[in-house]
């Protein structure tokens, strides 16, 4: 499963010193991985794949939060 290896690399990637364009690219890559794993999950219903998707989603949300910035109150 090359897809799971890509997911592991994405998960272990450091987020420090990333430019905005790097964050956007990382967010898109995360979305692509999640959707690809989801297609396999629909067929197999493997719980390990669901856990991987959850972890990738958490990482992706952190990156997107950083892209959007903090809202001024």
UniProtKB/TrEMBL annotation:
Highest taxon, organism lineage: Bacteria
- Name of the protein this chain belongs to: Uncharacterized protein
Q: Which organism is it from?
A: Dokdonia donghaensis DSW-1
Q: What is the lineage of its organism?
A: Bacteria, Pseudomonadati, Bacteroidota, Flavobacteriia, Flavobacteriales
């Amino acid at each position: 499963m090359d897809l799971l290896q890509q997911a592991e690399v994405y998960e272990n990637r450091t987020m420090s010193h990333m430019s905005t364009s790097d964050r956007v690219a990382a967010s898109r890559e995360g979305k692509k991985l999640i959707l690809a794993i989801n297609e396999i999950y629909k067929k197999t219903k493997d719980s390990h794949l669901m856990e991987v998707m959850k972890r990738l989603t958490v990482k992706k949300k952190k990156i997107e939060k950083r892209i959007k910035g903090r809202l001024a109150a």
